[in-house]
Amino acid sequence: MLVALAAVLLWLAPQGEKIPPGDPKEPSVPQIAPGPASPAIEAGFKPLFDGVSLAGWVGDTAGYSVEDGAIVCGPKGGNLLTQEVYGDFELRLEFQLSPGANNGIGIRTPCDGDPAYVGMELQVLDDSAEQYRSVKPWQCHGSIYGVIPSKRGALKPAGEWNTQTVIAKGSRIQVVLNGTVIIDADVSEAAAGGTIDGRDHPGLRRHSGHIGFLGHGDKVAYRSVRIKEIR
User: Fold this and answer.
1) From CA 74, how far away is CA 111, in angstroms rounded?
2) Distance of alpha carbon 59 from alpha carbon 65, whole angstroms
3) What gap in Å lies between CA 197 and CA 165, rounded to an integer?
4) Quick check: 210 and 79 in contact, CB under 8 A?
5) CB burial of residue 149 (10 Å; 0-12, 13-18, 19+)
6) First to last CA, the chain
7) pLDDT value of position 8
8) How far apart, in whole angstroms, are the C-alpha atoms of residue 103 and residue 151?
9) Which of 132, 133, 180, 184 has the fewest CB atoms nearer than 10 Å to its CB?
10) Which domains does the chain have, with CATH numbers?
11) CB neighbours of 56 closer than 8 A, spacing ≥ 6?
12) 37-61 tens-digit pLDDT
C-alpha cells in the first residue's frame, strides 16, 4: 500500500524538462518564440524576433524599439545584432521604409568593426528618394555594399511593407525582394580582381557571423524575422 501511494505521489509531482546527458540546463542563448503579433513560422524556420521584445539581440538595443509587432530603428539607431552567429542560412523578413530612409542588413559580421567591410552589408535604402539620385549602383537597395550592385525596380514605395529573402550558402549570396531576384552572385568571384569600391572587404571571406540591422538614424521597421540554417 505504501509503495502504491508513493508511486501516485511521484506521478503527481511536477515533471521538469528532460535534458539529454551532457547538455547544459540553461541554453546560452534565449530561445525566441513567436509573440502574439508574429505570424506562423514556416517549417524548418525559427523566429529571430518574438514580436514584443528585443530578446536575443545585442549591440545598440537602446537605439531600437518594438512598435506594433516590429523592430523599429530610432533617430540614433546604430547596429543591432543577433546574439547567435550563423553561417549558411535562409533569412526571411518584412521591412518598411520611411521616406529617404537608409539602413542595412548585416550578415556574417563580427560585433566589432564596420559590417560593410568586416562582414557584408546588404543595403536597405529608399533609393527612389531625391537625395539618393546620384548613388552608385552598389549603394542601391539590396546591393552588397561596395561589392555587387542589385537589380532595381522591385522595391515598393516608402511606407509600404516589403518582403525579402536572403540566402547565404558558401560564397554564394542570393537576395529576393518582393518575389524578384535582385542579387545572385558568388562574392569570391566578385572580389577576385578587386571590389567595385576599391576597398578591402575581408568580410567576404568569413564563413559565419552575426546577422544585424545597421541603422543610420532613419526610421526603418522590420517584422516577421525568421531564419533556417542550411546544413
Assistant:
1) 20
2) 13
3) 25
4) no
5) buried
6) 54
7) 36
8) 18
9) 133
10) 30-229 (2.60.120.560)
11) 29, 30, 32, 48, 49, 50, 82, 83, 84
12) 455 678 899 999 999 999 999 999 9
